[in-house]
Design goal:
The protein is an all-alpha fold. It is built from 44 helices and no strands. The longest helix is centred in the N-terminal third of the chain and has 28 residues, at 2-29.
């Protein structure tokens, strides 16, 4: 009997569960219920100050219902907290499109517009609200701030007083009133308003911080400190009051008190990233680099999951020359997440610093596939391209980096260097102005602007004014003194030039530009012994400078002290196996001494050490071309290897095209290569000659003549250009012009191979 009664109970229970499940399932399918749940979840996150999570939930609600106005408004609030103002503006605009009577959204829009300097647009939003609700205190406050932005102090104060009459218990309105009173120089009234705000909201940190900031402006630092301490007592878990008090102490040069505040913050807020990072930043800001290194090392171990902290520490290690440690930490990040773009870029920078620029390029290209607008990646790729001899790509990458982030200083400096190398004064002027605008306390922009003025042959006073400004803003930098010395050298004021260059070396004993200018000053006065003495002294002072050994070697070469020059250049290479200038100078020395095999051997070693750097292949190819007899087939192979690494390399393309044209290569391939070279080097006469010769071989004589006429004007002493132009004129039936050009080629180089060929052509011309 009992068993029979128990059975229906089981059935009833199951039925209840099924009904409940059906109800839950029905709710889960109800879009109104779903969107409301997302909204409420987002609001809970907002209350916990987890704004990113809140934004995700509000977005989820909008996935359910794109016209859910409240979700748009709440999403705008989350983005306001995150500082994403364009997104917040868009969401507020969508809110008022759906709910034109949403006064809060209208006022928030007005405040954003006012912050963006659009006072009239902000005013229209305030007026819209006041038309429907003349007693809206926030709308009157917005109108007051609009008037203040238009310098209507009286109207602004009147509107704010109206707002306070409508909402006398709102502390934030008194804070706003205080700002307007302070602008109107009503200092006692502003203080009274801030104290009223504190009184109305005694448990809030915000009005206390506003009052403290007011006291700081009045230089009442003791009163400001008192307010900061009260704020810390009210909210011990808030970092902002501690940060502001630290700043106050730093302004008073009370570094010990500032340090103590941050030590306490780190102890009391162990999980707040701002708090535990601040002490290391403080040490850096106050020049205590060793303490900063120790602090970052300790903190990043305590918080291994804080990637931003670890990346900051890696950057600090790199700046301090501790690149092995930086690399180990960066590898840890990449092991956990191989797609971390910042870590990919840092890894590539470490490769570049380690002389492996070619290996860094694929890694940077991978990073840019993920983040094509990453300015740091573009900059690093520009550096890698520079070090592997790809000047065209380097310029493109530096331009992209500067476009994406005009305040990326290394990119602007690199662009300036390219402009100087190319003689592109327009680019240099643009870069100079950008640097002066962004970094007025740095000397670089003024120096570059002075360089432009000098190149444009402006009055020396204009040039000198900018150089004086460079020295004035950065008296400890060598740059201003270097360039002032160069100006004095150009003015033949040699004693002053030497003085400025010596000052530059005092400020930067490693300044290559200063030492080169100093050497040039002595050589211009034919004081070779003094030049050697001074350069040798600087090499002794900085014995690990590869560049200085190169300068000494080149100088010794010029005075024909070949054994000493070879020793100096070899030392430069030992110090820096990537020093291309030292290799070039040593190769030249060996060729002059009749040792082409030795020079070729050195370039083969370079290629072994730098297999992805085209410069070695090109240099060796040119050496092979210059042998007697020329080893043109080997040179051609080397140029082809270079083009496999850098298909657009203009020097390799130009030289290979010429060899192919001279040795019965495919004229169509040669023409394509010559066009590639000309695009990259449009102002170089040799690229014009190669392309012209390709056109000649293809029977396109008109284009050939046009290029060669330009080349001979730019370099009238080149016999090959005249010889080629003579042949092109001959093909067009311009016999007199052809004769003139061929005779000119013979006159310039009568005993050369070109002279011989020109004589043959002249004889053929006489027969025709």
């Amino acid at each position: 009997m009992k068993n029979k009664q128990a059975r229906p109970l089981v059935v009833l229970t199951i039925s209840v569960v099924m009904i409940a499940l059906a109800l839950v399932s029905g709710c889960s399918r109800n879009p109104n219920v779903r969107k409301q749940k997302y909204l409420e979840s987002g609001q809970r996150y907002m209350a916990q100050q987890k704004y990113r999570e809140a934004a995700i939930q509000f977005s989820n609600a909008l996935q359910v219902d794109a016209r859910f106005a409240e979700a748009h408004y709440q999403l705008a609030q989350a983005h306001l907290k995150l500082g994403n103002f364009p997104t917040a503006y868009a969401e507020l605009q969508r809110t008022v499109d759906l709910q034109p009577d949403n006064a809060k959204a209208q006022i928030d829009l007005g405040n954003l517009l006012l912050a963006a300097g659009k006072a009239d647009d902000a005013k229209s939003h305030a007026e819209l609200v006041l038309q429907k609700d003349p007693k809206n205190a926030d709308a009157h406050a917005l109108m007051a701030n609009v008037m203040a932005s238009k310098n209507d102090a009286e109207g602004a104060l009147k509107e704010m007083q109206t707002a306070i009459q409508l909402a006398p218990d709102r502390a934030q309105l008194y804070e706003n009133l205080a700002v307007l009173q302070a602008r109107a120089k009503q200092t006692p009234d502003a203080e009274a308003s801030l104290k009223k705000a504190v009184e109305l909201d005694p448990k809030s940190v915000r009005p206390l911080l506003a009052l403290a900031g007011f006291y700081q402006l009045q230089q009442r630092n003791a009163d400001a400190e008192e307010q900061y301490r009260k704020a810390i007592a009210i909210d011990p878990k808030a970092f902002l009051p501690r940060a502001l008090m630290t700043r106050l102490y730093l302004l008073e040069h009370k570094n010990e008190q500032a340090e103590q505040v941050l030590v306490e913050a780190k102890k009391q807020l162990p999980d707040d990233p701002q708090a535990y990072r601040a002490l290391g930043d403080f040490y850096l800001a106050t020049g205590q680099r060793d303490k900063a290194m120790a602090e970052f090392a300790a903190v990043q171990k305590e918080h291994p999951k804080d990637l931003a902290l670890k990346k900051n520490y890696i950057e600090l290690l790199m700046q301090s020359g501790r690149k092995d440690e930086a690399g180990q930490l960066n590898d840890e990040i990449l092991k956990a997440n191989p797609k971390d773009v910042e870590a990919q870029v840092v890894g590539a920078q470490l490769m570049i610093d380690g002389g492996k620029a070619a290996d860094a390029i694929p890694q940077l290209e991978t990073a840019l596939k993920t983040e094509p607008n990453n300015p740091q990646a573009h900059y690093a790729l520009g550096v890698a391209a520079t070090q592997t001899g790809d000047g065209a790509r380097a310029e493109k990458e530096f331009r992209d980096a500067a476009r994406l982030n005009p305040k990326l200083q290394p990119a602007q400096k690199s662009l300036a260097g390219i402009a100087l190398a190319k003689g592109d004064m327009d680019l240099l002027k643009t870069t100079a102005e950008e640097m002066i605008k962004n970094w007025p306390a740095m000397p670089d922009g003024y120096v570059y602007r002075a360089t432009v003025a000098a190149a444009q042959k402006q009055n020396d006073k204009v040039v000198e004014a900018d150089l004086q400004k460079a020295i004035e803003v950065a008296p400890q930098s060598a740059l201003g003194y270097e360039r002032m010395g160069m100006l004095r050298l150009s003015q033949k004021r040699y004693a002053e030039a030497i003085k400025f260059e010596e000052q530059a070396l005092e400020h930067n004993p490693r300044s290559v530009a200063a030492l080169e200018a100093l050497m040039a000053t002595y050589l211009t006065q034919k004081q070779t012994d003094k030049a050697l003495e001074r350069v040798s002294a600087q090499v002794k002072a900085v014995p690990d400078s590869s560049a200085f050994h190169t300068i000494l070697g080149v100088l010794q070469f010029e005075v024909k002290n070949y054994p000493a020059a070879e020793a100096s250049l070899q030392k430069a290479i030992d110090l820096d196996k990537g020093n291309i200038q030292a290799y070039l100078a040593l190769s030249r020395l060996q060729l002059i001494q009749g040792s082409p095999d030795k020079a070729a051997g050195d370039w083969e070693k370079w290629i072994q050490n730098n297999p992805k750097d085209v410069r070695g292949y090109i240099a060796l190819a040119m050496l092979e071309e210059g042998r007697n007899p020329p080893s043109w087939q080997k040179a051609q192979d080397l140029y082809q290897q270079a083009l496999k690494i850098q298909p657009e390399n203009p020097v390799a393309a130009n030289n290979l095209a010429y060899l192919m044209l001279e040795h019965n290569g495919n004229p169509d391939v040669a023409l394509t290569l010559a066009q590639t070279a000309r695009r990259a080097m449009p102002d170089l006469p040799s690229s014009a000659d190669t392309l012209a010769w390709a056109y000649y071989k293809k029977g396109i004589y008109g284009l050939s003549i046009e290029l060669l006429e330009d080349a001979t004007k730019k370099v009238p002493g080149n016999p090959t250009f005249h010889y080629h132009l003579g042949l092109a004129y001959q093909k067009q039936g311009r016999q007199s012009d052809a004769r003139t050009q061929l005779e000119r080629a013979i006159q310039i180089a009568p005993d050369s191979a070109i002279g011989t060929e020109a004589r043959k052509a002249l004889q053929d011309l006489g027969k025709s």
